[in-house]
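User: I'm new to structure prediction. If I give you an amino acid sequence, what do you actually give back? Let's try with this one:
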Amino acid sequence: MKGKVYIIGAGPGDPGLITIKGMKCLEEADVVIYDHLVGDAILRHVKAEKRFIYAGKEGGAHTLTQDEINACLVEEAMKGKIVARLKGGDPFIFGRGGEEADVLAKAGIPFEVVPGVTSAIAVPAYAGIPLTHRGYTSAVAFVTGHENPDKDKSEIAWEKLAGIGTLVFLMGVKNLPRITAELMANGRPPETPAALIRWGTTPEQETITGTLQDICAKAEARRFLPPSILVVGEVVSLRDRLNWFEEKPLFGKGIVITRPEAQAESFAALLQAQGARVIHFPTIRIVPADDSQKLNNAISGIENYQWIIFTSANGVRFFFQRLMDMKRDIRDLRGIRFCAIGPATADVIEKHGIRVDIVPKQFISEGVVKAFEKVDIKGKKILLPRAEKARDVIPEGLEKMGAAVDVVTAYKTVNSGRDKAEIEDFLKEGKVDVVTFTSPSTVHHFIEIMGTNLLPATTRIACIGPVTAAAVRGAGLQADIVQERYTIPGLVEALADYYRKDG
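Assistant: Good question. You get back a string of structure tokens that encode the predicted 3D arrangement of the chain. For your 503 residues, that looks like this:
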């Protein structure tokens, strides 16, 4: 039974630019055959049980030749597999997608083409260059900067091309001297604005502006390498006013996330929205407690509690999972009031259909104790499901007010088992600007994995609050950024403010 092939455009690099249909086809696929320019961030969203085949080329070195890629597509589809052929940009714009579709058609294999956002449009847009503008030009041409070397002669009509308002050359860095010389020889003024954009739409984006006459010298001086796009035309001059992407406060900053991978996506999305290059290096895993008997006993007698306090979203998740495992549900929690240490924890509670009664002004244990100063809890019984290792500020503080607090272990944090080699190259190359910590356990296990002397002097440390900052200082490191609002959005805001001030 024949399978099917989806030829999908992944967009130019920013993972947010892949289409909804493209992601749906990826979810459906059994096999993913992907190119070099497909970002890791897209592949992270694809389920791990799929089979991945790398078919990229870098610097002219092919992992698989085009004939081998074509054969692979046919072979996998003939096994009855759903195949996602994931290509950078748009598959039909200088992407050899047409060749692959033709091979599939000849083999009688069903296929669909899912268009992608071509780098020819997206990359100039991220560099602040509109390809058309009523005040400048209404014509634009896309040209390959790297023609098929097997052709007898060039198909590019330079004399006609030179007269078009905006020109976009893809893969044109290696042939830049010839391109600029041909355009000037065919009547394009030497002072025509030109821009080279490398790794467009990603945090590594780099842009050089100049003119047809001097862009080659500037590229050589900066050692500009592929993958790059050349834009020629008066619209390039608009970049001075319209450069929005490279002006983001965290643009190009390498920021390490050490929190568990399952909880990192929203954090990563906020950082990427500010222009950061996110490096995932989870130092901990969240696992069930070794002994859940105390939690089981608490749930069995849940009607005896007047309050439940949660100090993390993990505590909420493990508590409610255990509640369900014991064939109980939120109806058994009627009459009980709830406290959450912060808004993120409160959100997780409220997704279970439960209203949170107390969220302290300070999202730390001391804030929880202070919030209960206004509540009569004398003689009340309080359940505190939390991590195996935690400070005793809350139970000690509430017991002084006359409450009986049952502390039960809902989960524990363990070393993620990651290898420091995963980020050593980033550190050595100076690509780590900030390491973020969101709990003392992320600090302790980071030190356990990395040691204490591996961070360069230029690398900053950002902490979600004073308790985590104290753990950083206790490890002999410096807490450079500690925000006033102890939430993930607050941490991102503090990072952005730090670099706005620091420049």
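You can read the tokens as a compact description of the fold. Here is one thing that stands out. The domain at 121-247 is CATH 3.30.950.10 (Methyltransferase, Cobalt-precorrin-4 Transmethylase; Domain 2).
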